[in-house]
Amino acid sequence: MPLRTGRCLCGAVTFKLTAEPIVSRICWCRDCQHISANGTVNAVFSADAFEVQGQLTEYAKKADSGNTIARLFCPTCGSHVYGHTSLRPNLRVIRVGALDDPSSIAPKQNIWTASAPDWACLDQSIEQVAGQSAPPPPDVPEASSR
Ligand SMILES: [Zn+2]
Ligand SMILES: [Zn+2]
């Protein structure tokens, strides 16, 4: 039984999540602003807890970190569904807004706040990180959308 389900705007792409997220963040990097007009809210899952159905188009871009980030979206409606990074290919970064119940995952950090626009509404009750958050210990998988 999936714990959570989600879909793109038109419904051609659907997905299931069978585990709890490793971490959840709002990312204010400039790449996220270009794709979403705002920060993106992302939850990171183990790849084997994520099952997706439907056709996706992939766009891969090298980030400032040197890692290649692949972003996958529905070719019909353009909705971003998830991404993954060359740094940790065993993880999937899911767009929380694509969940059928987006309230079921609350972001714990704002990251890349230094590049957030002046009008950004940053929740001061969660951690603020100017750039990428500190790297996790080697045995703890973690990733952001950057
Ligand atoms: Zn779609
Ligand atoms: Zn970002």
User: How does CATH name the architecture?
Assistant: Beta Complex
Mean pLDDT over the residues = 91
Tell me the name of the CATH class.
Mainly Beta
Order of helices and strands: EEEHEEEEEEEE
Provide the gyration radius in Å. 14 Å
Termini gap = 30 Å
Q: List unreliable stretches of 5+ residues.
A: none
Supply the number of structural domains. Answer: 1
Strand order of the largest sheet: 6-7-8-9-4-3-10-11
So what's the overall shape? globular
Query: What amount of the residues lies in strands?
Result: 35-45%
Please provide a written account of the structure.
- With 146 residues, the chain is mainly beta.
- The protein has a single domain (4-128), classed as Metal Binding Protein, Guanine Nucleotide Exchange Factor, Chain A.
- The strands form 2 sheets. An 8-stranded mixed sheet has the order 6-7-8-9-4-3-10-11.
- It has one helix at residues 30-36; strands at residues 4-7, 14-17, 23-27, 40-46, 50-53, 57-62, 68-73, 80-85, 91-95, 109-111, 127-128.
- It has 1 helix and 11 strands, in the order βββαββββββββ.
- The radius of gyration is 14 Å and the shape is globular.
- A hairpin with a 6-residue loop joins strand 7 and strand 8.
- Helix content is 5%, strand content 36%.
- The chain starts with a strand and ends in an 18-residue tail after the last strand.
- One zinc ion binds at residues 8-10, 12-13, 74, 76-77, 79.
